[in-house]
Design brief:
mainly alpha, 434 Repressor (Amino-terminal Domain), globular, 6 helices
Length: 100
């Protein structure tokens, strides 16, 4: 699995979990965050290509009172450290399978 695929899978499950914990529907999260409900739905169901923009992630995280890493990462594996390390060729990082 690619790094992007693993992050998308994490985003899907984390977004659904955090939204449910906040007691929000997809429509409510969309309205409160300024992200269209159809985009929220697509992100939760994994029906997107690539990753959402930084602006979308920041809006969702702010509304859910979490960090963007909370949306993208498997608990305990900071996504930003993982990606930047791989871009620099850091072989000490865990395999992609550790993301999801």
């Amino acid at each position: 699995m690619s790094v992007i695929g693993a992050i998308r899978r994490n985003l899907s499950s984390n977004l659904r979990r955090l939204r449910n914990e906040a007691g929000l529907t997809i429509d409510q999260l969309g309205v409160y965050s300024g992200v269209s409900p159809s985009t929220v739905y697509k992100l939760e169901t994994g029906r997107t290509r690539g990753l959402p923009t930084e602006a979308v992630l920041v809006k969702l995280a702010a509304t859910l009172k979490c960090s963007t890493d909370d949306l993208l990462a498997k608990p305990g594996v900071p996504v930003t450290d993982y990606i930047s390390g791989h871009m620099k060729g850091d072989s000490r990082l865990p395999p992609v399978s550790a993301l999801g």
